């Protein structure tokens, strides 16, 4: 029956319609409602009101903080990222390959767990490092205060600099060494070459990485929420959270939220536009496709001091916070000294087997991530297929909609789904797991589209056409040829969604109900309620799950790549 | 087996008209070639016959069956057209073995398992891949992959085979070998073949008939390889079939001269071309090998500008009046005449085999593929 209907409607039209429908429902409507709510009051446009809301001290302050933090994080991450990238790809630093992998570890760790650790170490009076320094040197005041703009910038930088690092070290390795060699032959010294040849060639990659950092920092919730909310430092996403929570859904609060969210969407769109412009301008630059052996700077006497700097940096930014989480998570009570006799496994037993709230959160995160990853992967395959492969009228609508998920930050998605699914269209799933599920699909669609379209672009049109010529229908060609060939891309998409969704905080924190906390939300609320030890215990469980997950992906993606 | 007929087929991409009013008949069982420069629309025509593209106007028949008629919203999808297609990039499925690739059309047709594998193995043997059934494509050379593609297109005994530049990714030796095999396969199976290429050598070697297409998607000439080569209808076709020389001519006192020069041609004004001569539009074309070199003073006078030794032949650039000609001479001939001519020497030229054209636009000298 359905088969016959499908045959009558051309498959192309069916797929296009489905794809448009999904993107409209999941992404376009929520974003549209945000803009609509921001701009219109009782059906008429109201600009004065927007200006009024934006000039209120607390919203104005949040905007200012957002810009300061994003700018600070971008500058710091760029400096760190370029420096370390140059160190591992252009010098004779010992253990380069190991160091390169280690610099990517911060990517794996959820930054809000890092923020939690730094709070335990550096909060003015109770932070372990502050206490230690005050006792040792007999200081009256704590030397560090993590609850400041600088504290937030520092912690975010630790977890975001790999964006720049990856872009720049990749570009440095692919750069055609003959460009530098010819400069050298013309008599230029290494410093001149670096300044006049290498750096200008790297600018597009540096710019692209820096903009990515700016985008993440602007939309990021965890670090500023944990380090800023207590002392009244808000940025756009945390302000939206605060407005919604305090006012329990009053219209003014929602409206302020939508105005701030609109600003986020527009900034994100501008950043992405700038990024694609930069990358395009760099496209014809001289980056060779093959890896070649560039000339390496001999560090000589600086070799081991610089290695030591890198190791210390990693120890401080990765090892120290991780260890802190595990140690505090084992404490009998927060504030005790970190000694063996103060440790217990009871916390772990309690949150894993006894406390319903934490048990629920682990289970919720698991099934929500699994379901969202699976559905988003499939829908992403469908949409990418229509965009990459099909020639059909009306495709430009889909191409336009397909860009949307890339530029919608998590907070905005959460606010959008609240507006869409709280009964406005007859469906009210607010406070249920479904609303988080829908939000995850919107949030991770971009990952799925990216991975799937990359895989589909590898499958030349003629492979599918050959199947058609062999007598296969469009469905059969998809099933027998296209899907098997893009399976690695689909598997990659699944894990690219599953792992980040497992530790998601930004979106879920706006959507959770009494029984639908996720791991991220549970850690966050435990911390907010002062249950620091349990927050740390749950965070260590999360870290273990994440590390195992990454390990599994490596194995799975490796075997599925070998299969083809 | 079937013939292919296209009636008034038109196709545009946006505002760009690729094919306009295209009408052609490909006879049952013949090997027909579309020969034309890249971008002339020949692949688009093939893709419309296959059903991968739909024409904007016109009708396409395969055998008695109307397969595309946009005016009547009639369109038969590729899988129902009973065709075999071989692509330029082989399009062998990388996740299937040779046998799995070749057997696929039969699986789709639900041919019984045993018969299917018997037929597939026979076809694999026919393209000389016996013994490689269980290899994966990445273990095969380019030529072998193209044979897999051929076998896959042949195995279901299609009415027509469409080949889109199937040899252009192969090296020269393999290309030569494969074109004989394709010819041989056609003889054995009797299938109608439509072959699309920009390579005039392949076209001449395998075709029963050739259609030469111009850059604007129009057909310049249809004929047997011999007709196309010996009686080109215009300078474009002549140039496309190989290295070519053009001499613009004019008449003075009843004799032909190279235009605006003192170089006389020892050839009477060809019959029926008086009008063109009078208008100053007569052009003579010839191949490098169709020019005989003689001692100075005889024939048309020219000056050797360049002489290159190319193994069995010597290639000269000779200026006659203001026109440069490519002239080729076999080593034996050169030695008989006292060795290769030095650069700068004067030489006599005789043209035993001139093709006559009327000039329309500008002519480029010595164009075409070398």
Please explain how this structure is put together.
The complex is a heterodimer of chains A (564) and B (370). With 564 residues, chain A is mainly alpha-helical. Chain A folds into two domains: 1-45 and 344-564, MetI-like (MetI-like fold, Orthogonal Bundle), CATH 1.10.3720.10; 67-325, MetI-like fold. Chain A is 76% helix and 1% strand. Chain A has 25 helices and two strands. A two-stranded antiparallel sheet of chain A has the order 1-2. The model of chain A is unreliable at 287-291 (pLDDT under 50). Chain B is of the alpha+beta class and 370 residues long. Chain B folds into two domains: 4-236, Rossmann fold (3-Layer(aba) Sandwich); 243-352, OB fold (Dihydrolipoamide Acetyltransferase, E2P), CATH 2.40.50.140. Chain B has helices spanning 42-50, 98-108, 113-126, 142-154, 172-189, 200-206, 225-230, 235-240, 274-278, 331-336; strands at 4-13, 16-26, 31-35, 57-62, 65-69, 74-75, 83-86, 160-164, 192-197, 209-213, 219-223, 245-252, 255-258, 264-265, 282-286, 292-294, 300-310, 313-320, 323-330, 346-350, 355-358. Chain B has a six-stranded mixed beta sheet, with helices on both faces. In chain B, strands 2-1-4-5-6 form a five-stranded antiparallel beta sheet, with helices on one face. Chain B starts with a strand and ends in a 12-residue tail after the last strand. At the A-B interface, helix 21 and helix 22 of A face strand 7, helix 2 and helix 4 of B.
Keyword list:
heterodimer; A: 564 residues; mainly alpha; MetI-like fold; two-stranded antiparallel sheet; 76% helix; globular; B: 370 residues; alpha+beta; Rossmann fold; OB fold (Dihydrolipoamide Acetyltransferase, E2P); 2 domains; six-stranded mixed sheet; five-stranded antiparallel sheet; 10 helices; 26% helix; disordered C terminus
């Amino acid at each position: 029956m359905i088969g016959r209907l499908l045959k009558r409607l051309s498959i192309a039209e069916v797929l296009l319609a489905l794809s448009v429908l999904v993107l409209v429902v999941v992404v376009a409507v929520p974003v549209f409602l945000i803009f609509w709510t921001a701009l219109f009051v009782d059906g008429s446009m109201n600009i004065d009101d927007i200006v009024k809301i934006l000039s209120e001290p607390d919203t104005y302050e949040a905007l200012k903080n957002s810009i300061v933090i994003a700018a600070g994080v971008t500058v710091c991450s760029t400096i760190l990222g370029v420096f370390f990238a140059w160190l591992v790809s252009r010098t004779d630093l010992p253990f380069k390959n190991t160091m390169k992998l280690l610099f990517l570890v911060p990517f794996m760790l959820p930054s809000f767990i890092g923020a939690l650790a730094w709070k335990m170490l550096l909060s003015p009076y109770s932070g372990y490092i502050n206490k230690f320094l005050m006792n040792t040197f007999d200081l009256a005041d704590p030397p560090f205060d993590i609850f400041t703009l600088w504290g937030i910038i520092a912690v975010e930088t630790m977890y975001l600099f790999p964006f720049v690092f990856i872009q720049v070290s990749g570009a440095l390795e692919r750069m055609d060494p003959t460009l530098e060699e010819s400069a050298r032959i013309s008599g230029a010294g290494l410093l001149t070459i670096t300044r006049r040849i290498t750096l200008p060639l790297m600018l597009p990659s540096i710019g692209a990485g820096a903009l990515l950092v700016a985008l993440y920092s602007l939309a990021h919730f965890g670090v500023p929420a944990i380090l800023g909310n207590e002392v009244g430092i808000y940025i756009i996403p945390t302000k939206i959270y605060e407005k919604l929570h305090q006012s329990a859904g009053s219209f003014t609060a929602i409206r302020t939220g939508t105005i701030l969210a609109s600003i986020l969407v527009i900034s994100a769109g501008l950043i992405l536009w700038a990024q694609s412009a930069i990358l395009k301008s760099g496209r014809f630059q001289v980056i060779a496709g093959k890896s070649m052996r560039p000339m390496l700077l001999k560090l000589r006497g600086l070799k081991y001091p610089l290695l030591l700097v890198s190791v210390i940096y990693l120890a401080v930014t990765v090892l120290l916070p991780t260890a802190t989480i595990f140690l505090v998570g084992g404490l009998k009570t927060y504030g005790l000294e970190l000694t063996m006799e103060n440790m217990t496994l009871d916390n772990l037993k309690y949150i894993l087997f006894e406390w319903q709230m934490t048990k629920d959160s682990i289970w919720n995160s698991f099934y929500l991530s699994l379901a969202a990853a699976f559905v988003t992967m499939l829908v992403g395959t469908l949409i990418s297929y229509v965009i990459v492969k099909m020639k059909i009228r009306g495709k430009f609508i889909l191409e336009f909609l397909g860009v949307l998920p890339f530029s919608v930050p998590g907070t905005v998605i959460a606010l959008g789904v609240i507006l869409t699914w709280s009964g406005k269209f007859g469906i009210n799933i607010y406070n249920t797991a479904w609303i988080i599920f829908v939000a995850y699909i919107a949030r991770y669609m971009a990952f799925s589209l990216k991975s799937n379209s990359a895989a589909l672009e590898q499958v030349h049109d003629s492979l599918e056409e050959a199947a058609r010529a062999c007598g296969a229908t469009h469905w059969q060609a998809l099933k027998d040829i296209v899907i098997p060939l893009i399976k690695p891309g689909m598997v990659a998409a699944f894990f690219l969604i599953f792992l980040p969704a497992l530790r998601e905080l930004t979106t879920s924190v706006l959507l959770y109900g009494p029984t639908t906390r996720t791991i991220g939300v549970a850690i966050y609320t435990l911390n907010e309620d002062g249950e620091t030890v349990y927050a740390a215990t749950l965070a260590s469980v999360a870290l273990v799950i994440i590390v195992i997950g990454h390990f599994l992906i490596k194995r799975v993606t490796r075997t599925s790549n070998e299969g083809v | 087996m079937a013939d292919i007929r296209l009636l008034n087929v038109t196709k545009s991409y946006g505002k760009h008209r690729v094919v306009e009013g295209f009408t052609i008949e490909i006879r049952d069982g013949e090997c027909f070639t579309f020969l034309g420069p890249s971008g002339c629309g020949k692949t688009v025509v093939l893709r419309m016959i296959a059903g991968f593209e739909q024409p904007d106007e016109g009708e396409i028949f395969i055998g008695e069956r109307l397969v595309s008629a946009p005016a009547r919203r009639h369109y038969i999808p590729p899988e129902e057209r009973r065709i075999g297609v071989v692509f330029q990039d082989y399009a062998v499925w990388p996740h299937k073995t040779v046998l799995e690739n070749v057997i696929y059309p039969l699986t789709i047709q639900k041919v019984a398992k045993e018969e299917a594998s018997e037929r597939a193995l026979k076809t694999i043997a026919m393209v000389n891949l016996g013994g490689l059934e269980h290899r994966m494509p990445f273990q095969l050379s380019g030529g072998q992959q193209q044979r897999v593609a051929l076998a896959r297109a042949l195995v279901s005994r299609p009415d027509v085979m469409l080949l889109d530049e199937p040899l252009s990714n192969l090296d020269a030796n393999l290309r030569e070998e494969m074109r004989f095999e394709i010819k041989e396969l056609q003889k054995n199976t009797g299938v109608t073949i439509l072959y699309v290429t920009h390579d005039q050598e392949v076209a001449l070697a395998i075709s029963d008939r050739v259609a030469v297409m111009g850059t604007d998607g129009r057909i310049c000439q249809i004929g047997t390889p011999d007709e196309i080569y010996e009686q080109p209808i215009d300078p474009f076709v002549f140039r496309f079939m190989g290295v070519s020389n053009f001499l613009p001519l004019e008449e003075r006192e009843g004799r032909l001269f190279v235009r605006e020069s003192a170089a006389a041609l020892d050839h009477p004004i060809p019959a029926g071309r008086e009008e063109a001569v009078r208008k100053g539009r007569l052009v003579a074309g010839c191949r490098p090998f169709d020019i005989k070199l003689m001692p100075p003073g005889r024939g048309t006078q020219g000056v050797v500008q360049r002489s290159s030794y190319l193994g069995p032949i010597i290639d000269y650039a000779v200026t006659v009046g203001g026109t440069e000609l490519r002239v080729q001479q076999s080593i034996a001939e050169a030695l008989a005449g006292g060795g290769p001519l030095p650069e700068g020497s004067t030489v006599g030229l005789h043209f035993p085999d001139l093709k006559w054209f009327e000039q329309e636009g500008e002519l480029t000298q010595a164009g075409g593929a070398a």
